Amino acid sequence: MTSSATPGSGDSTGSPGQPDRGGSAGSPGQAAGLGRRAAAIAIDWLVALLLARLIPGAEYGTGDYALATLTIFAVEIILFTWLTGSSFGQRVVGIAVVKQDDGRLSLWRIIVRTALICIVIPALVYDSQKRGLQDLAVGSRVVMRTSIGMSR
């Protein structure tokens, strides 16, 4: 049986001849644990905090600093996920974000997912498959990079 992905979209590894991964529970993409996910988001937030310190006029504890931190956090997640399939923090801990059928996420899905993460609540609510509301909303899931053939 073939995947429901559009022709030519390829899989998340970009390697030809990869087996159909499908979106079923038997898919080889092993779900990432909540500990790794929490570590990844903490790394992304720490990087955003540090980069926000470099912005002139944005002093720690001010509204400008908070807005700069959140903006950097969102832009970093969107760019890195779009380009590599993982945010910086996710890449460090060895996890990736893929479509439910294991393909790459489109830019609009990444933007919506990141916006939902930025409002926090969706990321705290998840289902039995460890998918947060942000993943359910855009049809994505977070998996171990090595379980889908991606290098760390």
Describe the structure.
This protein is mainly α. The chain has one domain (34-148). It is 45% helix and 7% strand. It is built from 6 helices and 2 strands, in the order H-H-H-E-H-H-H-E. Strands 1-2 form a two-stranded antiparallel sheet. Helix 1 packs across helix 2 (63-84) and helix 2 (63-84) runs antiparallel to helix 4. Mean pLDDT is 79; it is low at 1-26.
Based on Cα principal axes, name the global outline.
elongated
Helicity level: 40-55%
**Which structural class do you get from the secondary structure elements?**
mainly alpha
Which series of helices and strands comes N to C? HHHEHHHE
DSSP strand tally: 2
What's the number of helices? 6
Indicate how many domains the architecture comprises. 1
Whole-number mean pLDDT: 79
> What is the CA-CA span between the terminal residues?
29 Å
Alpha-carbon Rg, integer: 16 Å
Spatial ordering of strands, largest sheet: 1-2
Low-confidence stretches: 1-26
Strand-residue proportion: 5-15%
Please give the largest β-sheet.
2 strands, antiparallel
